[in-house]
Every structure is written in structure tokens, then in C-alpha cells.
Amino acid sequence: MSLELLSQLETKIQATLENIELLKMELEEERQKSAALTEKNQQLEQDLNSWSDKVNGLVGLLNSEI
């Protein structure tokens, strides 16, 4: 291999390594977003269950009054 080919290979490897680092950073950001969304989803499910219990309680009161 000529020195020029080795230089081109080195450049391509360096570009690939930089791309890998960028992709790793993007992946970490997406993991953080996913964790935040999972947490938000759990909170919303708890809120929904709470409201459902309240509504069922109120319907039960109405039924007992009738």
C-alpha cells in the first residue's frame, strides 16, 4: 500500500470514529427522553386510576341515593 492509501484509510477511520461518537451521544439523549416519557406515562396512569376511583365513588354515591 502506498502512503497515500494509508492516509486515506486513516482519514476514513477517523471520520467513522467521530460518527460513532456522535451516534453514541444521540443514543444517550434518546435513552434519557425515553426514561422521561416512561416516568411521565406512569404518572399519567396513576392520575387516571385516581380519577377513575373518584368517578366510581361518585357513581356509587348516586346509585345508593336512588
Run of helices and strands? H
**Uncertain segments:** none
Radius of gyration in whole Å, from Cα? 28 Å
Strand content: under 5%
Q: What is the general shape?
A: rod-shaped
Number of strands: 0
| Mean pLDDT over all positions | 95
In whole angstroms, the N-to-C terminal distance is: 93 Å
What class, by secondary structure content?
mainly alpha
- Helix percentage: over 70%
Helices, by number, come to: 1
The major sheet is characterized as:
none
Structure, briefly:
The chain is mainly α and 66 residues long.
Descriptive report:
There is one protein chain. 0% of the residues are buried. This protein has one helix at residues 3-65. It is rod-shaped, with a radius of gyration of 28 Å. By secondary structure, it is mainly α. The model has no long low-confidence stretch (mean pLDDT 95).
